[in-house]
Every structure is written in C-alpha cells, then in structure tokens.
Specification:
The complex is a heterodimer of chains A (415) and B (686). Chain A contains twelve helices and 17 strands. By secondary structure, chain A is an alpha/beta fold. In chain B, the strands form six sheets. Chain B has a seven-stranded antiparallel β-sheet with strand order 11-10-7-8-9-12-13, sandwiched between helices. In chain B, strands 18-17-16-19-20 form a five-stranded parallel β-sheet. In chain B, strands 3-6-4-5 form a four-stranded antiparallel β-sheet, with helices on one face. The chains are: A alpha/beta (415), B alpha+beta (686).
C-alpha cells in the first residue's frame, strides 16, 4: 500500500496508509461517529462531495452482498482509522479494500489522526480538504484548489437518469420516490410494505409526477446545500400545493421547507452519526436517530400559518421535523432508519408521531407504514378528503386561508 | 460504602426482611429502591412483596415492581412474556418419554442438549446432533433419571454471546448504553468471559436487529431504570435468542458505565425518582442530555481475574457457573493494545499473552488445554497461534470468532517478530501501537532501548470527541497527540488497587477514594489510576483526572508522567499490595513515591529480625531471589525442622503458606515463582 495524506484547507496535514483507489479527491471534510454501518456510510449518496472521517476504528466487517448496496452512485471519500485485515461475517463476499477499489473510493488509513481531526472540525467547523493517495501533487496548488472548492450539482450528480419502477408481489399503493440521493433501504422498506415504488429523477417536474397519479410521494435524502436546487424547490412547491400526500426526509425535508418559505443555515460541523436524540414535541417522547446533514432549517423561519415545528434535536435544539397544517405533508430531518421504537398503538395512526407501546421493528417501518396505510385507495372518489395522512388533523381540502398565505410565499433566492 | 459521606443514615445490619421492616419503622421512608444491590436487593424486595409488606405499609417500591421482577426471573413467566412480544428464546421442554423428546427436537431443530432430571453432576446428559443420537442419549437419560424425566433444550453452543445495557425512563424513552460482545461463545459464563465493547463482529444489520429486540424487551417489562439483556446470535444467520434479562443494574452495567463514560447507576437512580432521560444532563459533556447513545473511539476489553493462584488445586474448567472473583478493564486505541493492557492488569506476572509454562509444552498438550476450556485457554490459543497454527483450525476447536483469533494472532506474530527480527524504529512503532511495553520489548529482543516517554493520554468522553467534555476520564496510549490539557496546579497521583481477588476486595479502593477526597479538600488536583471497573475510584466524579490503566511496574515510566503529574507526588499506600509493589519502580525512575507503611515490607525482605505489632516473631528471616533460594531454604532447614516438627512459614508477597515438609516448600515455591519470576520471600519458624 502506498503512502497517502489528508490535507486540510488550513494547511494541517495527516499522513497515513492509502487504501482503496489511488488519486486525489477534494471535498468537504466531516466526521461520522457511528460505530456500525461502514458499508452503509461508504455507499451513502448524501456524502457526495465529502471526505468522511470515521471516528470509530474501522473494524467493521464488510459484509453483505452487493445487491444491498447503492451501486454506481458517487458516495464519499473516506478517512479510516484502521481497516480490519481479517473481517469476519457470514455475508462477507469481499474485503473492504476490494470494496473501496470497486467503488472507486479513495481512502486514507491511519490509526491516530481521527481524534485530532474530529477536535479540529469540532472547534473550527467543517473545512475543505483533499486526500491524496499514491500520486504526486504540488501542495501549494492543491491547497488553492481545496480552498476554492465548493460542492456543486450534488443532487444532479447522484440522482437516477431515468424512472425506475419496482413492484412488490401484490402492490397496494403506488408511491413516487423523488431521488435526490436515496438510500436503498428506503426503497426496500416501501416495497416491503406493499408499495409499488417508482423512482423519479430529481429533475422530474411536478406536472409529470402528477400525471403519473401516485397515491403518495416521498422526497428522499441527499447531499449538499438544499438552497442550491432552485428548480427542484420550485417543483416541490407545486407538488406541495397539489395536495398530494408527501413524506420528506433529510434533504427532501429541507427542500420542502425552503419551498414553503423557511430558511436554512449551515451547521458548524453537521450531524453525522447514529446517536442523535430527537424529541417529538407532541408526545414528549424522544428517539435516537440516525442523521447525516450539514444544513438545518431555522426554527424561526418556519411559516407559522402553514406549519409547526414537530421534532427538535435534544443536543442543539435544531429543527428535526415539521408538521404542515391543512396539507397532507410531514417532513423529518433525520433518517427514519436504525431507530428502534416499539409498536404503534393503532390510535397513533391519527398522528404522524410515533407512539411507543411494544412490538414493531423500527420507527422507519412505522412512519412508512402509516404513510402507506393512510394513502387512500385509488378508487376513492374524493381523494383529498380521504387521503389525509394522519398528519394533518385533517379533514378537508386546504382551507382558503392556507392557500392564500401560501401564494404569497416566494421561493427563497439562492444564496 | 458504609460511610457517613454517602448517606444520611447507615445501618450495619443483616440483610433480612425483619431488618428492612425495622428500618422502615424508624426512618419512615417514602420508597425503597431495590435494583441497585444486585440479586440480594431484588430478592429482598421480592420476599417483602410476598409477605405483603407493601400492602401494609405506605412505602413504594421504585424502579421495578414485584411483577416485573417475577417476569424477568421466573423462567416460565419470562418465556410467556417473550412469546407475547414475539422475541425468540431458547426453547426447551421437560419430557418423560422418548417420543416426546424426538418430536420436540424435530420441532426446534438439532442439535439439542439433553439434561436428565435429578442425576448427579448431570450424568446421562449430552448433546445430540441428530435423531439417532437423541434416541441413544435420551433413552439413557430417561433410564438414569429417578423421575424418568429429561429436559430437552435447543443447543446454542457456538453462538455469539452479545450483551446490551439498556436504560428506560418513566415516559418510555429508551436508549442502549452499550453493546458488548463476549470473545468466548455461549457456554462460558459472561463473568468468566473476556468481553469486548463495543461489539466487533456485528454488522449494522445484526446490531440493529438485536438493539430493536433489546428495546422491545425493556419496553414490555416496563422497567424504569437500567436493565441488562443477553442474547445469543447464530454466527451464520440472523437467528438469535434471548438468554437472560437482569431487571436491575448489574456487574455488566458497571463495565458498560466505565467503558462508555455513561453513569448508568446515577441515571437509573434519577429515573427511579421520576426524572426523564431528556431531563438529566450528561455530566461528562455537561452540554448534552442523558438521552443519547454513547459512541466510542477506542476499544474496551474486560478480562476476568480468577482465584486459581490461591486455589491451586481447584477445578479450573469454565462453564455456566461463574468462577472469576474480579475483573480488569483496559482501554486501547486498538483491540490488540487493549488486550495487552488487560493481561498486564490481571497481575499474573505476564506482560504478553505468552505463558512461560506453555512455551515449554508440546503442541499436543496445548491442544488438550484448549479443548479443556479452562481459565488459561486464551493463553494456550495464543501459544498455538505463536507456533503457526491457523486461526481457522482454532476456530473449529474453540468456536471463538476468527476475527478475535486473527487479533490474537497479530499479537503472536508481533511477539515473534520482536524476538527474531531486528528491532528498528518501524518495528518498534508497530509493537508499541499493539501495546507492547518498552520493558517487554527489551526482554524479548534482548536489546536495551533508549529511555523515552511516548505516552499520550486520551479521553473517554461518551461522544467520540463530537462535543467538548468537561469531566472525562483518561487512558494512555502510544503516540504524541495527548488530549489532556496541561495544568499547573499541585497534583497528586493516587494508585488504586486493581482487580478484586481472594484476600482483597474493594476495601483499598475506598481507601483510595477517601485519600482523594482528603487531597481535594486540601486544594490538590487529584489523579487516580486504577483498572478495576467495579470500583468507586474509577467514577468520573471522584478524582479530577481519573486514569484508566493498570498499576503495572512496566508502565512506571509512563506513570511518572501519569496525567502530567511530573512535578507532583504519587501515593501508593492506599491501593493495597498492587500499589505498594510499585514503590520501588517509582524510586528507580527518580519519582518520589510518598509511601510510608510500604517500607515495612521492603525491610522484611532485607533480612532484619524484628517484632511486629501482632506479636509474631520473625526468626532468622532470609530474603532471597529465585527458586534456588526456596529450595535451599527448604533443604537446609527442613530436615532439621521436620525432626523437630515445627512447621515452616513461607511468606512470598501476597501469598502465605504453612509448610510442613520440604516437599511443601518446593511445590509452593514452584507455584509462586510461576506467577512472578522475582519474588522476595521470608521463611520463619513458628
């Protein structure tokens, strides 16, 4: 293995062993504190344009078959602590090294630099940097390039090229999944719940989506600054107004929030990890969630007449979920994945909020289940009336008041 | 802990229901907290509940009610509860004819364990791999059982053993504090197993599956406080089974607390009086709440401390009954480093996993030891790996996950490399990163190393450095990136007492704690070094700078630096034998050990005759090194002594024996020299 190094915009340099593919990768450096789920992180399109430092010793088995991984989508570059040379798992079909190579991920392995890097990012905020593996580079020029780097066209880079339709055995609902960089697990969860999933490219217009007549829409997570996506935001606004039930997560949540007039801020070092505590304001219950985002919606900017804050992060009080009044729409910042909760009492179907009781696998399942349950059968004569996602205390088509106030909202100018 | 410092009223009474009744009469408390005193506390609460105590008195039982305790402790109630929430358990059935046994086995799948009822030592039982074997073993078992009953149980030996520490509040908020993995698969009591935190061989899918199950179970039991759940996980599928649930804080909770920095007992107590997890501050970061799941940027190893150095002739085989008396915990930036630290910490006189005795044995014997599954199996495995046996073949014998075997093999390869290759800078660095001490490297390579101090102190902060920590604790590691802020105050390092063993419990630990409190009052900045997770001294809020490390002489050079106490002092007299032994090493390093009582021991070895307060006379004391000396003392003295028949008294540091014959002396010297190559001993007539 050849030597490699990580160069930060402030000139800090960490040397280590190179792994994965060779070359130079410039990106925004973030750290991720999750202790399991390496292959999930390595294949997460939300990390597009970023260099991810894994704070835990990368002992993780590179398990699982290829089919469960997002293949072919650009993911993160990676900075590892130490790779397990002899990982062990019954599903394992290749080593991490082979996997990184196959995915064309440039990696740096070094067992000492991550705690230092984490501290640096914690104190100074996210920073650009470059991993250089096995190639000669002029450091001065590289540094200039690093400093001027900006993640651009993130969503367009990771979204699918054309519509894809996935059908379960006995489809009960049809769901359109807007791909801003979705994770496989979301599609799988929808399929598991009897939803026929049509993956839509991010640039699909609201009109095209409506023409397909979905029972509900899901806006996926994805990479980058949400405000970079003017077109997507404008289309999301149309989708919102159309009254179609929408469930949005992560980047989808941010895009929908911007579409309804909220503002976003950049977090100092983002939330990347599997242990973020989120409180559901309606029930007072809290959940541990998996998160991966560098931006957050400003709580003050949520348009009061349209929506209300539903979830907050317990660590920094940032916005984690928004419930919209009069529209069958709810959005959460976290990935409803890896979050265990217990079973829903059926009465919780009346709300979008998970209520614990005992029994079901995870919050994601429950949110998705509720999502799919609440979507009306297609034959329903009055879609709007019956469609209510439990969310919107509902009943009824959007009130005039809501429509009026909404029309006054402008899509925020790109910053 | 029966100390005025800790409670407003303390009763030193036998733990019986009568005592509790009397205390309740006198003190009139509102509630009783039964979940913090281990099984004793729970049993007492159950007994009181049975006696109808809580109906007659206005006293509440906090944290767990009798119903919850019964559900977790009663086998049938537990199974019913699991079945209700659809969690798998280890299936078993009592049968009294072969047909039923075969039908049950067919339903749950082979292999199955057959345990005949009421037979001595479980004779007549065994593992049946298939129908034919079950016919044979089952028939035999039925014949041997006086009641013609056998228990047929699904056999899960070889499955991974995973433990979850879960905590839940009255509102139903739950978090998993830590998941730990036993290196030994199911079959060896978790108290006797080497345990790793966090789990190492679980991918996200398995981890999330077990985590969900753990949260599901604690929710169903409605426990308000800490809870420990043990799972068995099939190594080659997603099948798992719940082994046991402890509805209280347990030994593992102490380990999980120290491994992650999350104060489980403290949080559980606050929950018991009605706080929610989202209302309790995370005292380590001072910023976040107790509602979070700690993440680690290091590895933790728990190594059991066995009493077999004292009970030399006890049966050493390990099984479902716990034999360890205590444990040490070590923290490292790699698994290898943590294992090396732990082995030094158990005070068997080892500085690598290579046991001198096993180095001399033929491979055939090593194999027998590995198969016998006793407390030294890990060392036999190491020896086998050192000799080039593959991890795969050892996996087949031991069932230990290849991941851990490869980790041990890394250490074995490194030891061999240091021995047989030139110790250059890169090899030195690699060995240091695996946790080899300078002294060990000198011993192995036969090469003197220049004195250098490469100890960086890292923090245990619950959050992998995501947030700034206010009261973290520290561990040492090779490197230069120290995370300990420099401070200029007056500092004193107190050395703790190490693992609990026969003859030394946690009394010295509390001495150390008292010492630290006294020094705090005097305005010193206090540092405490210990490696026993079951102690108060390693709590994050006792000393200013708790240091998790073994009080091992080889690390004294680092110790002198310990927590940057360079200009400060070291206290060794509060940590019992373990700490006292370090005095001379500090002296050698030029540091000043502030110890006074310890000097006595040294004087004893120097051959002076003196009288001690117990009025025991030391006659013709002779302090020497080595087995020769022991043999010499015996041969010179014993013939004469045995004629006169006064027994010979041998003192060897922590061990003492009355020898009646020369043979006794020789045998005993052999035993004590096995654990330590340099022992001063004192012999005297009684």
């Amino acid at each position: 293995m050849m030597d490699a190094y990580l160069l930060l915009a402030d000139g800090t340099k960490f040397t280590g062993r190179g792994c994965g593919a060779g070359g130079i990768a410039i990106g925004e450096v973030v750290f991720c504190t999750g202790m399991t789920g390496y292959q999930e992180v390595l294949t997460d399109p939300s990390f597009y344009g970023q260099i991810v430092g894994m704070t835990y010793l990368c002992r993780e088995i590179t398990a699982s078959t290829v089919s469960t991984w997002n293949q072919g989508k650009p993911g993160p570059r990676v900075s590892l602590r130490a790779m397990a040379k002899e990982p062990s798992n019954f599903r394992q079909d290749r080593s991490l090294q082979a996997f990184l190579k196959a995915q064309n991920i440039i990696g740096l392995e070094g067992d000492r630099h991550l705690p230092v890097l984490t501290r640096l990012l914690r104190e100074n905020g996210v920073m650009n940097g470059a991993i250089c593996h096995g190639v000669e580079a002029d450091e001065g020029a590289l540094l200039a390039e690093i400093r001027s780097y900006r993640i651009t066209d993130a969503v367009l880079s990771v979204t699918v090229g054309a519509q894809e339709c996935h059908r379960p055995e006995n489809p009960r609902f049809r769901v359109g999944l807007f791909d801003y960089g979705f994770k496989e697990s979301i599609r799988r969860s929808l399929l598991k719940r009897g939803c026929e999933v049509t993956v839509l490219p991010a640039h699909t217009t609201a009109r095209e989506a409506k023409a397909l007549g979905f029972d509900g829409l899901m806006l996926s997570g994805g990479p980058g600054d949400p405000a970079d996506n003017d077109f997507v935001i404008a289309e999301a606004k149309q989708l919102f107004l159309s009254g179609t039930p929408i469930f949005a997560i992560c980047l989808g949540h941010q895009i929908l929030s911007l579409a309804t007039g909220a503002k976003r801020e950049k977090l100092k070092y983002g939330h990347h990890g599997a242990n973020h505590p989120v409180k559901d304001l309606a029930t007072g219950r809290s959940y541990i969630t998996s998160q991966n985002h560098g931006y957050a919606i400003l709580a003050d900017s949520i348009p009061e007449n349209l929506a209300a804050l539903s979830h907050i992060n317990l660590n920094d009080q940032s916005v984690e979920g928004i419930r919209y009044r009069d529209y069958p729409v709810f959005t959460v910042q976290f990935h409803p994945r890896g979050l265990a909760g217990a079973t829903g009492h059926r009465r919780s179907l009346r709300r979008i909020h998970p209520v614990d009781g005992g029994g079901a696998p995870c919050l994601k399942d429950r949110i998705l289940r509720r999502f799919s349950f609440s979507v009306p059968a297609r034959s329903s004569s009055d879609r709007r009336r019956n469609s209510i996602m439990p969310v919107c205390n509902v009943a009824g088509p959007c009130g005039k008041r809501a429509l009026k106030s909404f029309s006054s909202i402008q899509t925020p100018p790109p910053s | 802990m029966t100390d005025g410092h800790l409670a407003d009223a303390i009763y030193l009474e036998p733990l019986t229901t009568a005592t509790v009744r009397r205390i309740v009469e006198i003190e009139k408390p509102d509630s009783i907290l039964p979940t913090f005193g281990g099984q004793t506390g729970l049993n007492l609460a159950m007994e009181l509940a049975r006696e109808g105590f809580f109906r007659q008195n206005p006293v509440r039982l906090l944290s767990a009610n009798p119903d919850v305790i019964r559900k977790a402790e009663d086998r049938q109630a537990f199974k019913d509860m699991l079945a209700e929430i659809d969690e798998p358990f280890i299936e078993s059935e009592v049968v009294n004819c072969l047909e039923n046994a075969l039908a049950f086995a067919a339903a749950v799948g082979y292999p199955v364990i057959v345990r005949p009822a009421y037979t001595l030592g479980g004779s007549g039982g065994g593992i049946a791999q298939n129908r034919e074997e079950l016919r044979e073993i089952g028939a035999n078992g039925l014949r041997l059982s006086p009641t013609t009953e056998i228990l047929v149980e699904k056999c899960i030996s070889g499955w991974k053993e995973i433990e979850f520490e879960v905590i839940r509040d009255g509102k139903g908020n739950v978090v998993t504090v830590c998941a730990m993995e036993n290196i030994d698969p199911v079959g060896i009591h978790t108290g006797d197993s080497i345990v790793v935190a966090p789990t190492q061989t679980l991918a996200d899918k398995e981890y999330q599956m077990l985590r969900s199950a753990a949260l599901n179970i604690i929710g169903a039991l409605e426990i308000e406080g800490g809870c420990n759940i043990q799972f068995a996980l099939h190594p080659e599928s997603f099948r798992y089974a719940v082994i046991e649930v402890n509805p209280r804080v347990s030994r593992s909770s102490a380990l999980a607390s120290k491994a992650t920095g999350y104060p489980i007992a403290k949080v559980a107590a606050k929950i018991a009086v009605g706080y929610g997890l989202d209302e309790i501050r995370n005292a380590v970061t001072g910023k976040t709440y107790a509602f979070f799941e700690p993440v680690l940027d290091y590895c933790v190893i728990k190594f059991p401390r066995f009493p077999f150095d004292k009970f030399v002739y006890a049966k050493r085989g390990l099984g479902t009954q716990m034999k360890a008396t205590g444990e040490v915990m070590s923290i490292g930036t790699s698994l290898e480093e943590a294992v090396m630290k732990a082995v030094r910490g158990i005070e068997l006189g080892m500085d690598t996993l290579r046991l001198a005795e096993y180095a001399k044995l033929p491979l055939r014997r090593i194999r027998e030891i590995i198969e016998a599954q006793d407390d030294t199996r890990i060392f036999a495995v190491y020896e086998a790996l050192y000799r080039g046996i593959t991890a795969e073949s050892l996996h087949a014998i031991t069932g230990i996950d290849p991941f851990f075997l490869h980790m041990i093999a890394n250490l074995a390869r490194m030891e061999a490399k240091v021995q047989f290759e030139e110790l250059d800078e890169s090899l030195y660095g690699a060995a240091k990163r695996m946790g080899f001490l300078d002294a060990t490297l000198e011993r192995l390579s036969g090469q003197a190393l220049p004195p250098r101090r490469y100890a960086a102190y890292k923090t245990v902060d619950t959050c992998a450095a995501e947030f700034d920590a206010e009261t973290p604790y520290y561990y040492s590691s090779f490197g230069e990136d120290s995370e300990v802020p420099e401070s200029r105050g007056k500092k004193i390092l107190t050395i703790g007492s190490g693992p609990i063993r026969i003859g030394q419990g946690i009394e010295f630990d509390y001495c150390s704690v008292q010492a630290v409190w006294a020094l705090r009052d005097l305005g010193y900045e206090t540092i405490i070094a210990n490696n026993n997770p079951e102690t108060v001294s390693t709590d994050f809020d006792i000393a200013h700078r708790p240091l998790f490390r073994s009080p091992h002489p080889g690390g004294c050079g680092q110790f002198a630096d310990g927590g940057k106490a360079r200009r400060g002092h070291r206290l060794v007299q509060f940590g019992g034998q373990t700490a006292i032994k370090l005095a001379k090493h500090f002296k050698r390093r030029g540091a000043d050990p502030r110890h006074r009582p310890g000097d006595d021991r040294r004087r004893r070895g120097s051959g002076k005759v003196r009288r001690d307060p117990g009025n025991l006379r030391y006659q013709k004391a002779r302090g020497q090194d080595g087995l020769y000396a022991g043999k010499g003392a015996a041969s010179r003295r014993c013939p004469r002594l045995s004629r006169a028949a006064p027994p010979l008294l041998c003192l060897g540091g922590q061990n003492m024996i009355i020898a009646y014959t020369a043979y006794d002396v020789e045998e005993y010297m052999g035993i004590i020299l096995k654990t330590s190559s340099k022992t001063r001993f004192l012999s005297t007539n009684t």
